[in-house]
Design a protein that fits this description.
The protein is built from 15 helices and 13 strands. The strands form two sheets. A seven-stranded parallel beta sheet has the order 3-2-1-4-5-6-7, sandwiched between helices. A six-stranded parallel beta sheet has the order 10-9-8-11-12-13. The longest helix has 22 residues.
Amino acid sequence: MANKRRICVVTGSRAEYGLLRPLLEEIRKDSALELQLIATCMHLSAEFGFTYREIEKDGFAISEKVDMRLGRDDSIGVSRSMGVAMAGFGETYRRLSPDIAVVLGDRFELLSAAACALVSRIPLAHIGGGEITEGAFDDSIRHAITKMSHYHFTALEAYRNRVIQLGEPPERVFNVGALGVDNIMKMELLSRNAVEKELGIEFDRRNILVTFHPVTLENDTAGSQFRALLNSLSRLKNTRVIFTKTNADPNGKIINNMIDKYSKANHGSCAAFASLGQLRYLSAMKHMDAVVGNSSSGIIEASSFKIGTINIGDRQKGRVRPESVIDCEPTERGIEKAFKRLYSRTFQETLKTVRNPYGEGNAAGRIKDTLKKCALKDILKKRFYDVDIKTKHGRSLATSKGKR
């Protein structure tokens, strides 16, 4: 049998691993492919629950661990961690010698992984390009990874067009839908009673899932914005609140400390978790009234359960939304108005017919099939695909039309 194609997948966080899991399973069960798996960043941190153990518990062998030495959560600490990661990924790629590397999303550890693949002359595939999140520096990281990548898998046709607009050849850009929908369609989610038992909670008449992250392109707003949310939550009656803590982002510890204090003071109605894992997270979401905060999961996954999302502030600004999303200002007044709308009869009726624009599953299968057969020879020297853009006066701004 010919040598297997070595596909190296990088994962740095619990949420991203949960999205990647169906793809990892597709690669692992294909006899023509060899799965190489690198765990890094939050997976190797005690503060974030050593979530590499969840990967191993799922039966995946971790090929290499790249420790980024997470410490301070300010810009200096993140920059140092990225530098440590660069050295680690360079050595790791040399040992594994993959045929192609795969990254999902837009976090800073993936920028290090992508840059090292570039200088190591390893073809790179990027999942989740073309999206816009104007409130976070993830936006710039995502576009930078796009320019270092050779194959692209997007969640919407609009995102595919944006990747092409960034100069990527159309024949290497594939609209496959969102991986998060795969999990909803394929996983056997827990019942309401099972979620209560797993999380050690009791549901109330109303129940919400809160996941809030720092807006990394704003200066020191994490504390004030999250305080506005907590003050609004304190006014809700007969409501169970489940918090999931932040990722390793600047000022994330501020939010996590506030979650701990609030949960301790309101232990009868609140519960907080560093990591739920994909099964428990999606199972909990299924039985919620809404996802509240500023996470992409409230936009991409929640509508598949026909529940609402209260999206606070600008972190997700620019991302395509289903009708189940209520955008609001990061103020007590704005958040309270959003809760009032969430529980209104009109909005609840809207949820019954809401459609998730991010597809109906099987993104993992489409990605695996492309990774299996895509050409890898002589693709490192990329050409810039010029899109014929017209000004309002009708003059072309492009130097060519990118003909093959």
